[in-house]
Amino acid sequence: MIHPKYFTKQVATLFFLTLTIHPFAQKKELTPKSFQDSIQNSGIQLLDVRSSGEFNQGHIAHAFQADWNNPEQFKERTASLDKHKPLYVYCLAGSRSAAAQKWLVQQGFETVYNLQGGINSWNLEDLPVEGKKEVKQISLAEFRASMPANKTVLVDIGAEWCPPCKKMSPVVAELSKEYPVIYVDGGSQTQLVRELNADSFPTFIVYRNGAEVKRIKGVCSKEDLKKILEE
User: Fold this and answer.
1) Can you point out the beta strands (E) in the chain?
2) For residue 101, what are the contacts with CB-CB under 8 A and spacing of at least 6?
3) Model pTM score
C-alpha cells in the first residue's frame, strides 16, 4: 500500500514534469477571432511566416514578415524579435506557422501563439487585411538623379515588416543628424531593389559623389555604419 504522503508527492512530481516536458500544455493555437482580439494588446509581436510574395497579396496589419521556407532569412529576421514578449504567428493555412512556432519555442521564445487555419481562416471570418499598395516604381536613373551632388550619402533599403530594419531605425535616425540619408522602401520598390542587388533587408549603401563606394547588410552598430561612411 502506498502511503498517502508519498502518493501526493508522486502526483505533484508527475504534474510538474508534464508541464516541463509539454510546453504546449496550455492552449497555444487561437481561432481567428481570439487571435484578432489578442493582437490588439500592446507589447505583442506579430509574425507572418509566408513568402514576401504572399505577404504582399494581403497581410494582417503591423505584421513582420520572415519566410519560414527560407531558413537563413527566417533566422536572421527573427533574431531581432524579443523572446520575452508574446509572439503571434500565422501563415496561409496554419502548417508552416505551427512548425515555426515549435522552432521558435525551442530557440527560447517564451510565449508563441499560432493562428488556427492561417490567414485562410482569417479571411473566411471576413477579418481585416492590408493589401498590396500600388506604388509607382522608381527607376535606377531616377534614383541616381535624386542623389545629392558632392556629398556622402547613406542609402537605407528596408521594409516596415522587417524586424532587423525596425531594430536599426534608431541607429539610422541618429546618423541622419550627421549625414544625408535616403530611405528606400524595399517592400514596394521591388524593381529598384533588384537593380541595386539588395538581396536582403536592411541593406545600407554608401554613395559618394553619386557612385557606390561601400555596402553592409543586416543589423550592425552605429560605429560600423560611420566607418563605411568615412572610409
Assistant:
1) 29-30, 45-48, 64-65, 87-90, 112-115, 152-158, 181-185, 203-208, 211-217
2) 28, 89, 112, 113, 114
3) 0.70
Fold of 27-124: Oxidized Rhodanese; domain 1 (3.40.250)
pLDDT in tens, 95-111: 999 999 999 999 999 99
The span from the CA of 51 to the CA of 82, in Å, is 22
CB 205 within 8 A of CB 215: yes
Categorise residue 197: left if φ over 0, alpha if ψ from -120 to 50, beta otherwise: left
What pLDDT score does 20 carry? 41
Domain spanning 140-230: CATH superfamily = Glutaredoxin (3.40.30.10)
Q: Of 115, 162, 171, 225, which residue is the catalytic one?
A: 162
Known catalytic residue at 165: yes
Domain boundaries, the chain: 27-124, 140-230
Cβ count within 10 A of residue 214 = 14
Residues 73-94 pLDDT 10s = 999 999 999 999 999 999 998 9
* Contact yes or no for 202/164 (Cβ under 8 A): yes
The grid coordinates of residue 120 equal 485562410
Grid coordinates representing 163?
524586424
Give Cβ neighbours of residue 28 (< 8 Å, ≥ 6 apart): 101, 112, 113, 114
Q: Which residue among 165, 175, 205, 206 is the active-site one?
A: 165
Contact 63, 187 (CB under 8 A): no
